[in-house]
């Protein structure tokens, strides 16, 4: 009887062939999401692999997010600008990653460690924001994809509600498709140790934090998020690096998420002190400076190839 190695070999070969097919000029229909996962389970059983069901399911999801990582490295340019046209050409690979997110079961999700779940939700937020753009491209702004009387951040289109039940701290819907707003405020905020995830999630807009050109992973999560926070606060196009006339201009994100960001140990000013640029950190006036929120640019964070 074939053992665990045979099952893993089958799954590895199948995934390799799936990715190979997605790169061909002719779009190949492949099994996605839960259907793909069921096929992998069946293959493992046919090979005679005797693996605990929960352990087997958990092994299918790639905690390194390799497909997503490869797409980001290829299509995210300097300044976090996204080549949406290029991503559109790799839509089959993008959809494969989306399907892998949707294929995670609640039973499997319960076995994950907290950093794995947080990395999952950050990557999911960024991927689903991009999906919205790809589905409606060309667009000028993600805000154009909201309803007549509703915000795009209230749009229910993220089918991951079955995972909300895993963490009782999460307050998002457990019966309806999720919104970007719910993932941000009702999942990531309550499950995260610190509110710095706000500088890792990107809603496809120019004034958002820069989109990292790699996937978030549990092994590097704290380092990645802190790096993004420092980069965001040092970016003069998003935040002022010095105090002028007793005022400090900072991103409107600090206004919209004030209650959440203020839960950082010591509050928002301590966050600025811990992660702000040296020019700001050394200024003794920071403790008393009036915070002024800068205008937000909602235009698409799009990279376009240079014109000849």
**Rough shape?**
globular
| Structure classification | mainly alpha
Percent of sequence in beta strands = under 5%
> In order across it, which strands form the biggest sheet?
1-2
Low-confidence stretches: 1-34, 40-59
Question: Can you give the helix content as a percent range?
Answer: 40-55%
How far apart are the termini?
Answer: 61 Å
Rounded mean pLDDT is 86
Radius of gyration: 21 Å
> Based on DSSP secondary structure assignment, what is the total number of beta strands?
2
Largest pleated sheet: 2 strands, parallel
How do the helices and strands follow one another from N- to C-terminus? HHHHHHHHHHEHHHHE
Assembly state of the chains shown: single chain
Task: Give the tally of structural domains.
Answer: 2
Per DSSP, the total helix count is: 14
Protein architecture, described:
It is a single chain. The chain has helices at 4-22, 33-46, 53-60, 66-75, 84-89, 91-102, 106-110, 114-136, 180-191, 221-234, 253-256, 258-261, 267-275, 278-281, and strands at residues 247-250, 290-293. It has 308 residues and is mostly helical. It has two domains: 1-60, no CATH class; 61-293, no CATH class. A two-stranded parallel ribbon has the order 1-2.
Which short descriptors sum up this protein?
single chain; 308 residues; mainly alpha; 2 domains; two-stranded parallel ribbon; 14 helices; 47% helix; 3% strand; globular
Task: Characterize this entry briefly.
This protein has helices at 4-22, 33-46, 53-60, 66-75, 84-89, 91-102, 106-110, 114-136, 180-191, 221-234, 253-256, 258-261, 267-275, 278-281; strands at 247-250, 290-293.
């Amino acid at each position: 009887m074939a053992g665990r190695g045979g099952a893993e070999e089958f799954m590895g070969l199948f995934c390799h062939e799936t990715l190979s097919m997605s790169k061909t000029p002719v779009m190949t229909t492949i099994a996605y999401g839960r259907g793909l996962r069921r096929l992998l389970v069946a293959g493992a059983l046919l090979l005679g692999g005797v693996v605990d069901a929960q352990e087997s399911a958990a092994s299918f999801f790639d905690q390194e997010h390799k497909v997503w990582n490869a797409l980001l490295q290829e299509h995210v340019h300097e300044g976090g600008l996204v080549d949406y046209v290029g991503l559109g050409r790799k839509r089959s690979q993008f959809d494969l990653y989306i399907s892998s997110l949707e294929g995670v079961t609640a039973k499997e999700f319960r076995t994950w460690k907290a950093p794995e779940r947080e990395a999952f939700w950050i990557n999911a937020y960024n991927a689903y924001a991009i999906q919205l753009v790809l589905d409606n491209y060309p667009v000028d702004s993600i805000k154009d994809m909201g309803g007549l009387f509703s915000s795009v951040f209230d749009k229910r289109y993220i089918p991951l509600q079955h995972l909300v039940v895993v963490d009782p701290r999460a307050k998002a819907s457990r019966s309806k498709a999720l919104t970007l707003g719910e993932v941000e405020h009702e999942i990531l905020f309550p499950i995260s140790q610190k509110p710095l995830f706000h500088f890792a999630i990107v809603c496809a807009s120019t004034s958002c934090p820069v989109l990292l050109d790699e996937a978030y992973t549990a092994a590097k999560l704290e380092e990645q998020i802190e790096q993004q926070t420092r980069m965001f606060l040092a970016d003069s196009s998003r935040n002022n690096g010095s105090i002028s006339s007793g005022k400090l201009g900072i991103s409107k994100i600090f206004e919209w998420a004030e209650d959440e960001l203020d839960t950082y140990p010591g509050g928002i000013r301590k966050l600025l002190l811990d992660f702000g640029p040296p020019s700001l950190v050394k200024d003794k006036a920071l403790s008393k400076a009036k915070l002024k929120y800068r205008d937000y640019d909602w235009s698409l964070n799009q990279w376009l190839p240079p014109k000849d």
